[in-house]
Design a protein that fits this description.
Elements: E1 2-10, H1 17-26, E2 30-33, H2 34-44, H3 51-65, H4 69-77, E3 86-89, H5 94-103, E4 104-113, H6 116-125, H7 135-148, H8 150-155, E5 159-162, H9 167-183
Parallel strand pairs: 1-3, 1-4, 2-3, 4-5
């Protein structure tokens, strides 16, 4: 078991996990993005990385390999030769949290929350292939994420940061949290 500090982030699409990741990188955290596993597998399976295809592959991987499949792939990708703290972006279930706790001694879950209306507007502004085409697409994606258990991860997180009050306040709150966690032994 590794003694490294691991912060796992959880939040609905558009809540602000990418901002947490960006701040973490600036503070010296290594970034591991669970969604990258899904994007890579989608392309590997010869599919275009649309929201619909990514969702299908996300569910298929977990059905074929078990609920911790993505977490296991992330653990395999993390080298053991550094003490660098890690941010794991995109926890989806409590079983994934438990998988990380099997490999790392110090795991803390950070939940990011923003309202559906706010998140929908943010997703529309993104320049990614998985942008929702409609409010219905957005809700379908949310329900798929919740079906995996994301709501449970958010509800049982160690820390919750609200992302509704503006970029500066959110960044300040995230920076304080990550700096404090990085310095705790």
């Amino acid at each position: 078991m590794q003694r490294r500090k691991v912060i796992g982030s959880a939040g609905m699409p558009g809540a602000g996990k990418a901002t947490v990741l960006k701040i973490g990188r600036k503070l010296g955290y290594r970034a591991v993005v669970m969604g990258d596993v899904i994007r890579e597998e989608t392309v590997k399976r010869g599919l275009h990385p649309t929201a619909k295809n990514l969702g299908k592959v996300m569910l298929r991987i977990r059905k074929e390999e078990g609920s911790t499949a993505v977490a296991k792939r992330c653990c395999d990708a993390i080298s053991e030769n550094t003490e660098q703290p890690i941010i794991i972006d995109g926890l989806r279930s409590l079983s994934e949290v438990q998988e990380f706790k099997k490999h790392f001694l110090k795991v803390k879950v950070l939940a990011i929350h923003a309202s559906p209306k706010t998140r929908f507007q943010r997703l529309l502004k993104r320049n990614r292939s998985d942008v929702p085409f409609s409010w219905e697409d957005f809700l379908d994606r949310d329900l798929r994420e919740l079906h995996l258990g994301l709501g449970n991860v958010i509800a049982l997180a160690d820390v919750l940061i609200l992302n509704e009050t503006g970029k500066m306040a959110f960044r300040r709150n995230v920076t304080r949290f990550l700096e404090r966690e990085k310095n705790i032994r």
